[in-house]
Amino acid sequence: MLARTEPLTTGHEKIVLQIGGMTCPHCPPAIENALKSIPGVCNARVNLANASASVDFDPTRAKVADLLHAVRAIGYSAGTAKVRIPIKYMHCSSCVVRIELALQLTPGVLSARASLATNAVDVEYQPEQTTFAELQHAIESAGHRVAEPKPAKTPEEQELSPEEVAQREEYRALMRKFWFAAAVSIPVMGLSYPDLIPGLREWMPAGSETRRIVWALLGVLSVPVLLWSGSQFFTGMWDALKHRAANMHTLIAIGISAAFLYSIVAVAWPSLFPKMSLAEVFWDVTDVVVALVTLGLALELKAKGRTSEAIKKLIGLQPKTARVVRDGREIDLPVEEVIVGDVVVVRPGDKVPVDGDVQEGSSSIDESMLTGESMPVDKQIGDEVMGGTINKTGSFKFKATKVGKDTALANIIRMVKDAQGSKAPIQRVVDAVSGYFVPAVMILAVLSFVAWYLFGPEPRIIYATIVLVTTLIIACPCALGLATPTSLTVGIGKGAENGILIRSGDALQTSQKLDSIILDKTGTITRGEPALTDVVVASGRKEEEILRLAASLERGSEHPLGEAIVKGTEARNVKLADAEGFTAIPGQGVSGRIDGHDILLGNAKLMRERNIVLGALVNHWEQLAGEGKTPMYVAIDGQPGGLVAVADTVKPDSKAAIETLTRLGIEVVMLTGDNERTAKAIARQVGIERVLAEVLPDGKAHEVQKLQLEGKTVGMVGDGINDAPALAQADVGFAIGTGTDVAIEASDVTLIKGSLQGVVTAIEISRATMRNVRQNLIGAFGYNALGIPVAMGVLYPFLGLLLSPIIAAAAMAFSSVTVVTNANRLRFFEPKRVVS
Amino acid sequence: MTPDRWVVLVLGLFLVAFIVWFFWLKQTKGVRAAETSSGYQEVMVLVKGGYTPDTIIVRHGKPVRINFRREETAGCSDKVIFADFQKSAELPTGELVPVELMPKEPGEYAFACPMGMFRGRLIVE
Question: Which of A237, A242, A450, A819 is the best residue to mutate to test the B interface, defined by the most B CB atoms within 10 Å of its own CB?
Answer without folding.
Answer: A450
